[in-house]
Amino acid sequence: SMTDPRSEVFYVEYRKPGTVNNSLPLVTRLEQMDAIAAAAAVEEYNRGAPAGSAATLLNFYYEHRGDSILNPVERVPALQHYRLVHETPMNLFTNVGADGPDLRAVKIFEYVPGARIRGEGIIEVPVITNTGRAFTYRQESAGGEFIVPYATSGWSGEVRTTGPYRIAGTGQTFDVTEKDIQQGRTIN
């Protein structure tokens, strides 16, 4: 599912190891910034960076030990042709208690052609996994369409949708069969 970054990240300029008698990167600038502005700043700096220098983004979100890996520094697009079919019940973050993040030890995905839905914006569908974990699959349109991997009917697998696809903010909803997914059909 598409994941957006936290709004704030660290913009970091640094000298690479071995450039000034250093065995580790040497931070020369650190600034908390909006994620989008910081990404643009990294790109601009790295285009003309002095030899041995670079810029990067770091995620400073930290609620539970190690959970910053769950919060990207830039938008991560959805896997259009892959759908979750099984996950193990073991949560990797059991050491932080019931309020900690939910990251399963093993997730199994399968490739599908995916059904096509014409539209613009963000499409969403509620999903429940074989372990009872609920999440919302989200995808941003590309070229005026969405390629969706989950059927809303006709699928007997362990991971299921619990409603129709809807394009956020439009009121438009779509039902998609397993046959639509497997044959790559256009829905509308």
List the helices and strands and how they pair.
Layout: E1 8-15, E2 26-34, H1 35-47, E3 53-58, E4 82-87, E5 107-111, E6 115-118, E7 122-128, E8 134-140, E9 145-148, E10 160-161, E11 165-167, E12 173-174, H2 178-183
Antiparallel strand pairs: 1-2, 1-3, 4-5, 6-9, 7-8, 7-10, 7-11, 11-12
Distance between the termini: 22 Å
Low-confidence stretches: none
Biggest β-sheet description: 5 strands, antiparallel
The geometry reads as elongated
CA gyration radius, whole angstroms: 20 Å
CATH level 3 topology of the largest domain: Immunoglobulin-like
Describe this protein with a few key phrases.
about 190 residues, mainly beta, Immunoglobulin-like, 2 domains, five-stranded antiparallel beta sheet, three-stranded antiparallel beta sheet, 2 helices, about 35% strand
If you had to describe this structure to a student in words, what would you say it looks like?
The protein is mostly beta strands. It has 2 domains: 8-70, no CATH class; 82-183, Sandwich (Immunoglobulin-like), CATH 2.60.40.3390. Helix content is 10%, strand content 34%. It has helices at residues 35-47, 178-183, and strands spanning 8-15, 26-34, 53-58, 82-87, 107-111, 115-118, 122-128, 134-140, 145-148, 160-161, 165-167, 173-174. It starts with 7 loop residues before the first strand and ends in a 5-residue tail after the last helix.
